């Protein structure tokens, strides 16, 4: 398993769940290896709840008076917020 093998392909091969991939011919460019799906033993039906019905978005996420506190050295994030405020001609 060399660096050209994707990490998600190594685990099933190491566990014996799939055959080892053949060594690639590195003399020419090629795409990623084709992988087979691992069959699930005793698959269970989905227990996820259905999504709630669509409703009107009523939560106000930002107002002209919204402020923020930035923890740590998030210089790029702060500069992006300041640039946005400047472009929107925000007063404060």
Description:
It contains 2 helices and no strands. By secondary structure, it is mainly α.
Unreliable runs: none
Total helices: the number is 2
Class based on secondary structure composition and strand pairing: mainly alpha
Distance between the termini: 57 Å
Proportion of residues in helical segments: 10-25%
Largest sheet: none
The total of beta strands comes to 0
Mean pLDDT: 75
CA gyration radius, whole angstroms: 26 Å
The fraction of residues in strands falls at under 5%
Strand-and-helix sequence, N→C? HH
Secondary-structure map:
Blueprint lengths: L6 H8 L60 H13 L5
Short descriptors:
92 residues, elongated, mainly alpha
Short description:
The protein has helices at residues 7-14, 75-87.
């Amino acid at each position: 398993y060399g660096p050209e093998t994707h990490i998600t392909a190594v685990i099933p091969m190491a566990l014996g769940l799939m055959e080892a991939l053949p060594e690639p011919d590195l003399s020419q460019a090629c795409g990623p290896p084709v992988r087979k799906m691992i069959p699930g033993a005793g698959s269970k039906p989905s227990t996820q709840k259905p999504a709630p019905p669509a409703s009107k978005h009523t939560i106000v996420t930002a107002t002209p008076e919204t402020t923020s506190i930035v923890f740590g050295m998030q210089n790029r994030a702060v500069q992006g917020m300041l640039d946005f405020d400047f472009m929107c001609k925000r007063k404060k």
